[in-house]
Every structure is written in structure tokens, then in C-alpha cells.
Amino acid sequence: MSRNPRNKTALKPGHSLMDWIRLGNSGTDLTGTGGRIVPVSHAELAKHDRAEDAWMAIRGKVYNVTRYMNFHPGGADELMRGAGKDATRLFEEVHAWVNYESLLAKCYIGPLRNTVTINLADSSTNPNSKLPPPPPSFAQASKLSATATSTSPPTPTKDTTDTASTTPPPPSIVSSTSDDSLKLSIPIVPRFDWIQKTAELTLIFYTRSLANPGVMVECVDHLEVTVNILLESSVQHRYRFHLANNVRWPCTVRTSLESGKIELMFNKLCPALWTSYGQMTYERRENCELQLHEYDVATRVEITHDSCALLLRPKNNSLLQVTPVGHHVSVSASIDGEYVSRSYTPVPASCVSTDCPGTFIPLLVKSYQDGCLSKHLTRPVPLGTSLQVSQPSGNFALSKLRHHNRFALLAAGSGLTPMLALLHYLLERNSNRM
């Protein structure tokens, strides 16, 4: 048997990514809790470490991965390495780029909670007497406990920081902490604005510098437009617009990664100044499952003897998708009655040697002799149809590159594709220029 360089496992029929998404949307309870959000302690998490009852914590969130075992591309044994424990470090080592929050959204049980047990038996033998003042070590540990469990933690003082790093808790206190679950993050709330010219309407969303947002714009008709802004892996900000007057489709999307500004520019059907853009509703959604949309291969351009540039066109041409730098999409197709899925990184339109309309997704795909999906996508005739393409997915943090201007990038073959968008950004950025 030849070695599998990607550590992939042959999945049973009916266990593709498409099948997993169908199962999640079927109404089946994948949490085991009836869909209720339940905080989970480390002790409770440790009880669920068997293949038939497997829970796992990643970055402070606990998931029931029992039903996902047979869908995991790396196999059940690989997934079991993190069962019953905080698997954050293991996840980061193996595939930190995977958008697990969307993939396991239907399996979410609740937040991972830290527990503190205080033994006061020695000081409570006389129920009528008052407790003496706690010793210094107890007071310090109590301060740490309050910091760890507070929903709105205060800024740590020097004393608490020093105690956390140098003083172990006394024997009467059992403390279990997870660095990942205690990380603080300020949620991004986009700010909306709009401007216009006589013949043009621009919808503007301000996120955050280097937030690296994904954008999905869907045209319902010339008056109805839905905008999804994808931030922080599992958070979607959905805006539904009923515009004051008709606009032309498609729009033009312009993103400034350094400022976090997103602009959607629409041409007005009838040039005139409007008194209002119309009406808008807003919804913030967390732990959203992966969404799939149907695409066809519209253009195939041969690059080498085994590699092609492909332009994927959405059905009805009513969807425009912008993939963040360092993110990918999942592409699925029905081949011989089974759905096969692979991940591909869209490349900048400038890297494709043909005109690429804004609604199209440009890919560079290498065809492998034993790759059923890659051969299906790159075949010259007939061009591939009825492909299921996911929303952008990934966890790449563009902000980590802010203070660096020298990079070493290593790629083999088609592994170059994730670097093209990154190089495009690095060479064009204004701050810390290369």
C-alpha cells in the first residue's frame, strides 16, 4: 500500500462533506443535549472519551464529535486523540487553518468552564464561630479564581499576574485552567454607511484594521440585496437591503485590508440622486454551519500539461463571493453516485490569464492521475457542472504579519496557490512596505 502524504482516510460511501452538511441540516440532534447550550467542566469533559461518546474542546468551546467520527478525513483514530480533553494545542499543530466552528456548528454543546474547589472543612468545625481572615495565599488564589470565572474580567494587577506565574495554589485549592479559553477578544461590530453619485450607489462597511473579512453578496432582484460579512471564523454579520430604487447587478466589491473598509458599488438603473438608500435589517449570527452554493465551470485555461485555471460561475450569476487572504473553499461534485469534496484556495483574478468577471471564482487546479475530483474539474469536455462550493473557510490571522517585512515562503507544485493572494497583499500594502 502506498503511503498517503496527506494522511487522508478513504471515507465510506455517504460520508462526504456534502453528506455531513445534509446531516446537520436534517434536524438530527448532534449535540446529545437536545440543542441546549450547557457549560461543561473539565471533569465532565473527561468522561466523554470513547468513540461512541466523544466530546472535544477547541479554543474554549466543547463539541460532541461522536457522529463526526466517520466523516473525518483523517480517520476516527486521529480524531480520538483529542476526545475527552482540551484539544486546542493538538488542533493547532495538525490543521489550524480548518474552520472547525462552521464544520461543527451543529455539534456545539457549550463553553468550557474552569472549576475551583475550596475546602473549608478545617475552619468550620464550630458552626457558631466566625471564619478567621484567610491567609495571604488563600486570598491570592481567590483573586485568581474571580479573575478566571468573571464574565467581564478586570485588567489583571501586577500582584495577580505575579501570583499566577510564580505561586502554585495551596493544597486545599484545585484549579484547572485553559489558556485558550481565557483569551479575551473584543468582537468586531461592522459600522454601516452609504454614499452616492448621480449614477452610483456605494454601501460601506467598516470592520477593523487587518480583520481580513470574507464577503458574500447575493442579488435577489434589482431592489433586494443580501450582504454577509464573515469575521472571526464563525461569526456572520447579515444585512438585508430593500433599496429605494433599482440597481444593476453585479456590483463591484473593493476591500481595504489595512483599514478594514468594505465598499460595494452599484450602478443605478436610472441615474438620479436618492433621498435615502432604502431600508436595512441586521442580524449577527454565531456558530454558523457551512453554506453551499451551486457553481459550474465556465472557463478552462490550460496552464501546464496537468494544471488548469478554472473560472467557476454561480448558478443564475446572482452571487458574488470574496475569499479572505489565506482562506479556502470546499468544492464537491457527484461522481459515480458519490459526493467527493476537496479544498481549494481561490487565487487573485490577476493570476488567471483571461478575463474574470466579479462573480466568478478563479482556481488553479492540478489534475492527479488518481484524483477523481481534480480530473472531473479539469476535463476539457464537457466542462464540470453542478458543483457545490462552500463559503470561505479558514483561520489565517493577517494581523500577525503587521510588523514583519521579510518572509520566506515554501511551496511545492500547486501548494503555491495559497501564497498568491498573500503575496498580492504584501506587495500592495502601504504600511511597513516591503
UniProtKB/TrEMBL annotation:
Family stated for the protein in its record: Belongs to the flavoprotein pyridine nucleotide cytochrome reductase family.
Major localization listed first in the record, in broad terms: endoplasmic reticulum
Biological processes, Gene Ontology terms: superoxide metabolic process
Domain Cytochrome b5 heme-binding: 37-113
Domain FAD-binding FR-type: 290-399
Molecular functions per Gene Ontology: cytochrome-b5 reductase activity, acting on NAD(P)H; heme binding; metal ion binding
Tagged with keyword Transmembrane: yes
SMART domains: Cyt-b5
Region (Disordered): 124-179
GO CC list: endoplasmic reticulum
Keywords: Endoplasmic reticulum, Heme, Iron, Membrane, Metal-binding, Oxidoreductase, Transmembrane, Transmembrane helix
Species assigned in the record: Anopheles quadriannulatus
Taxonomic lineage: Eukaryota, Metazoa, Ecdysozoa, Arthropoda, Hexapoda
UniProt protein name: Cytochrome-b5 reductase
Cross-referenced InterPro entries: Cbr1-like_FAD-bd_dom, Cyt_B5-like_heme/steroid-bd, Cyt_B5-like_heme/steroid_sf, Cyt_B5_heme-BS, Cytochrome_b5/Flavoprotein_Rdt, FAD-bd_FR_type, FNR_nucleotide-bd, HSP20-like_chaperone
Segments passing through the bilayer: 407-427
Location(s) in or outside the cell: Endoplasmic reticulum
